[in-house]
Amino acid sequence: MVQSTNNSSVSRRDLLKAAAASGGALAAGSISVSAAAESNKENLPPNVADWSTSLGEGVDTNPYGKPSEFEKDVVRRSVRWLTASTESSVNFTPLHELDGIITPNGLCFERHHSGVAEVNPTDHRLMINGLVEKPLIFTMEDIMRFPRTNKIFFLECAANSGMEWRGAQLNGCQFTQGMIHCVQYTGVRLKYILEEAGLKTNAKWLMPEGGDSAGMNRSVPLAKALDDCLLAFKMNGEALRPEQGYPLRLVVPGWEGNMWVKWLRRIEVGDMPWHTREETSKYTDLMENGKSRRFTWVMDCKSVITNPSPQAPINHGKGHTVLTGLAWSGQGTVDRVDITLDGGKNWHAARIDGPRLPKALHRFYYEFDWDGSPLLLQSRAVDSTGYVQPTKDELRTVRGTNSIYHNNGIQTWHVLKNGEVENVEIS
Amino acid sequence: MSRFLKLAVAILTCSVWAFPADAGKFSLGRKATTEEVKAWDIDVRPDGQGLPEGNGSVSEGEELFQERCAACHGEFGEGIDRWPVLAGGQDSLKSERPEKTIGSYWPYLSTAYDYIYRAMPFGDAQSLSTDETYAILAYLLHMNDLVDEKFELNKSNFTSIRLPNEKNFVDDPRPDTPRPSIAKLCMKNCKAEAKITKRARIIDVTPTDKKNPTAGID
C-alpha cells in the first residue's frame, strides 16, 4: 500500500492530520512505500497474487509509457506562497524518490517567468546578430546538422535553498534542495554556431534571449560560451520537454539555471554586458552592508542527504540502514563526501557510486547499523578544486541573511527515535 | 599494406572525420535581413545602445500605468499580493526586509526599458509602443521621487538619468568562505556537543501556508 495524497501541492498540516488518522509517522510531501504500510495477505506467500495468474495489458496500451500507478506520488511539487502566479513560478524535483544521478524528464523542476511557451519546431528560428560578420537565421534542421555531442550536466537554480537563509523552514529536501536536476543533453557546441556567423574582434559578451513572452535575456561572457556552452535539443535521449525549453535551450554548465535560456530564439553578440532585469534586480546577492554582488554565475559545491529526509523517514526501525544523497560542484567533480550521524562530532567517508563527471550530480551512499537513537545527519562535500562545502553559519557570517541566492550550506536532518525526520539547524 | 595497417589508417581517418572539432564553417543557416534583425533586436543597454526614437511624459505615463500596470503593481507601485513593488524602499537594503524597487535597488534605467518593452504587461508582452514605454518609465521615475511631475523622458535625455543604487553593485568575490586544509579536515571528536538551534516544524510553512510571505524566491 502506498500512503498518499492526490494533491501535488499539500499543506503539512493536512499531512499530519492524515498521519494521525493512519496512525503512522510521516512528514510533508509524499511518502514512499513503507514497511509500515500494510500488505494484502492475499498477495503474499503461500498465496499467489492475481498478477501471477492472469494476463496483463497488451503492448500499445500506453504508446508513450508511464510509471506504475503505485508511483503516482513521485511528482514535482510547488510551494504556493512563494510566488504570485503559477505562470511565473517554480516547482521542485522529488529528490527523495530518486536514485542514481539522472533525473527523469518528467520530474525535472520547472521555473518559468511567463508560463510554458508552446513552440512549433517547424516555425522556430534562432537568430544570431550583433558583433558578427554575418547575421544568421537557423532552423531547427540547420542546428541539428552541426556535429553533435552528449554531455551530462546538473542545472541548479541560484535560489535553490534560498528559503533557508534565516533558518530551517521547509520540511523536505524536495523543497529545500529540489531546484536541481541532472540530465544528458544532446546538442551542438555554441562555438560552432558563433563561428558560422563570424565573431568580430571586439566581441566579448553574448545575450541569449528566450522565445517565451518573458523574452528571458541574460549576459554571458564570450569565454564561457566558447568553452563549454551547448545548444541542446534533446534531454535523456528524447526531445526537450516543453517546460525545459522545447525545441532549443542554452546549456551553461556549472552556472546558475536562470542563464540556461529556454525556447532560445536569439543570441546577440556585444562588447559589454546588458545588465538585464534578471542580472540586476534579480539574481544579484544582497549583502548585510547594502552592497550587492552581481554576475554570481558559478554554482558552488553542495550536497544533501536525500534518504533519510523529512519526506522519506526511516520506516524499518533499528538495523542496517542505507543513507544516500547527492553532491555536485559547478567547478568540476566532487572528490569526496563526508557523513556525520551525530551532528558533526565524528565524520565518516561516504561511498560515491556511479559516474563522476564534472558539473554533474554525484550519488553517494553510507550504510550503517542504526541503533534506534536520534541522529543529526549532515553531508559535507569537497570538490576537485579543494573547495569544502561551508556550514550555513559560515555563509551567514560572510553574507548575512538577505542574499537569497547561492545558499550551498550544509543541511542538517534530525532523525527521531520513531524514524521521523525533520529539518533543523544545530550549534 | 597489411590488413592491420589498413585498419589503423581507416580508424585514423574516421577519427579525423568524426571530430571536425574546430573546423569553422559548415555553411548552415541563412543570412538574416536588416529588416528581420531590426524587428527582433529589442534589447537596450545602459549605454543607450538599442534605444529607439520616442518620448513620453510623467502624466501620460500615469494614465497608462493605471490602465495597464496597476492591477498587479498597485496604483502607487506598491504591489498587490506578491506582485513586485515598484516604488519606495529607499534606505531599506540593510534592513531585515529589503524592498528592492527601481528607485531603491535597480542599478540602471535601461534595464526597466528593456524589461517592460519585452515582457510587460504580464501576458500581453510587446504590446506597448516605444512612446508608451518611455511614458511609463517617466512615471516610474516620478513615483520614486527621481524626477518632477513635468518630466518627459526621451532617447536623448535617457542616459543622463542615473539610478541611486548603481554604485552599490560589486563583482563576485567568491570563494568567500573558510578554506580549510583538506588533509586536516577533522574526522573524530570534532566538537563536544551539537544542540538543535532552529526547527522547520516550528515555522510550519511546508509547503503551502500563506501566513509567511517573507521568504519568496524572487
User: What is the CATH superfamily label of one domain in chain B?
Assistant: Cytochrome c-like domain
Output the CATH class name of the largest domain in chain A: Alpha Beta
Main β-sheet description of chain A: 5 strands, mixed
Which CATH class of one domain in chain B is shown?
A: Mainly Alpha
Oligomer: heterodimer
How many individual domains of chain A? 2
Radius of gyration of chain B in whole Å, from Cα? 28 Å
Structural class of chain B: mainly alpha
CATH architecture of the largest domain in chain A: Alpha-Beta Complex
Put simply, the count of helices of chain B is 7
| Low-pLDDT residue intervals, each spanning 5 or more residues of chain A | 1-35
Shape of chain B: extended
Give the second-level CATH assignment, the architecture of one domain in chain B: Orthogonal Bundle
Describe the main β-sheet of chain B briefly.
2 strands, antiparallel
Q: What would you call the shape of chain A?
A: globular
Number of strands of chain B: 5
Radius of gyration of chain A: 23 Å
Strand % of chain A is 25-35%
Pattern of helices and strands of chain A: HEEEEEHEHEHEEHEEEEEEEEEEEEEHEE
Question: Notable features of this structure?
Answer:
heterodimer; A: 427 residues; mainly beta; Sulfite Oxidase, Chain A, domain 2; Immunoglobulin-like; 2 domains; five-stranded antiparallel β-sheet; 24 strands; globular; B: mainly alpha; Cytochrome Bc1 Complex, Chain D, domain 2
Q: How does this structure look, described?
A:
- The complex is a heterodimer of chains A (427) and B (218).
- Chain A is mainly beta and 427 residues long.
- Chain A has two domains: 111-293, Oxidoreductase, molybdopterin-binding domain (Sulfite Oxidase, Chain A, domain 2); 302-424, Immunoglobulin-like.
- Chain A is 10% helix and 29% strand.
- In chain A, the strands form six sheets. Chain A has a five-stranded mixed beta sheet with strand order 5-4-13-8-9.
- Chain B has a domain at 54-168: Orthogonal Bundle (Cytochrome Bc1 Complex, Chain D, domain 2), CATH 1.10.760.10.
- In chain B, helix 3 crosses helix 6 (130-143) and helix 5 packs across helix 6 (130-143).
- Chain B has a two-stranded antiparallel sheet.
- Chain B has helices at residues 3-18, 34-40, 58-68, 70-73, 109-119, 130-143, 200-203, and strands spanning 30-31, 55-57, 152-154, 169-171, 196-199.
- Chain B has 218 residues and is mainly alpha-helical.
- At the A-B interface, strand 1, strand 4, strand 5, helix 4 and strand 13 of A face strand 1, helix 2, helix 5, strand 4 and strand 5 of B.
